[in-house]
Amino acid sequence: MSAKPINVLFLCTHNSARSILAEATLTHIGGGRFQGFSAGSSPRENQQPNPIGLQTLRNAGISTEGLRSKSWDEFALPDAPHMDLIITVCDNAAGEVCPFWPGKPATAHWGYADPSAGDGSDEQKAEAFKHTLHAIRRRLDLLVNLPEEKLDAMVLQRTAKELAAA
Questions:
Q1: pLDDT of residue 37
Q2: Which GO terms describe its molecular function (predicted)?
Q3: I need a labelling partner for 24 at 20 to 30 A (CA). Which of 16, 87, 122, 134 fits?
């Protein structure tokens, strides 16, 4: 394992559901080899992670400590962590003009339906979050188990896009 983890930023519009699930899951399963981050293109004022999403993570044994909704502008600042890979997880964010990302990280789009959308009961929303978490986890398990040569900066772009079809 290299000394420096591969930093992955997950983007969504509000940074309250899918991107939060992905950040926490990658950090949990990354084994120090990967570090997850998340942000939104336009989080609402006083936006917080969805409480059903946080409960879904806790039910899966994944820490929610330190998770917060934040703007993607934080990651375009000069003192921000360098990102190796940026993945949009909602279709809205995928179509938006992103900030300039220092270091030209690899990018990919892994679309997931919004588990917090709709007027379903809390039980139905909890089931939707669980389903989304499992879908995210499936792709992230593939990512973290890739051999080193697939994670080289020149290959990471193609690899991340191939995982979108997984």
A1: 97
A2: arsenate reductase (thioredoxin) activity
A3: 122
